[in-house]
Amino acid sequence: MTGLPLRPVRLLCELTAVLGIGALLMLGGCATPPKPPPTANEALPVALRASQDEVLQEVMTTHGDETYICRRTPVPADPLGALSAAKTSRATTSGVRSDPTQLLWAPFGSEAILVDAGGESVGTVAPGHYFLSYDGSYVKAATSAESQVGANALTWARYTAGYDAAPRPGSGRFADISSIQRIDTSGGLPPQPGCELEGSRLLVPYAATYMFYRPKGVAPIASSTDSTGL
């Protein structure tokens, strides 16, 4: 049995090489682009910046849901239309007193997974501004400032740690957190402010970057799982 002529074989090899290079180029073009660095503290609105007595301990990202509950809310006062609003609220055409309230989506809190710089899931965000680490430490924070940076995304915010806890004194990722910034948000807002069924819930996907700060002079504390080997 005779082999293929030299020229067809050479053409086959050249074609294979071209296809191989093309495949590599396609793979390179589909590669995930690197994540942009988070917005620097100095570039944030003044009210959201960390204090001079704090240092950045850790940066985490998250993808999760912002939860809303449909609640009855009083209609806000309108000075320009106060008289007409009063007449409308006293009676309708049928003689029945109208309800001066409206159903709106009220924010309940965030539910999301916290991911560290190494891409590992290390904790969660829970409603009530709880930041929970898998090592047992957690932070209960309070909102100290907010800024509506993007029109179609959750506010950027600064939280002050009102309480933090650790599984043992001096251990845990969140043992000495003093404040947290939520920045670079996307999503998380309801499609419309009004709702129809009182008490119903709405989950809206969101993403954000969280910056965790500790007081100056306090050494960073490794996760308890690092020290115990658990």
UniProtKB/TrEMBL annotation:
**What Pfam families does the record tag this protein with?**
DUF3455 (PF11937)
For this entry, the protein name equals DUF3455 domain-containing protein
Give the originating organism.
Paraburkholderia phenazinium
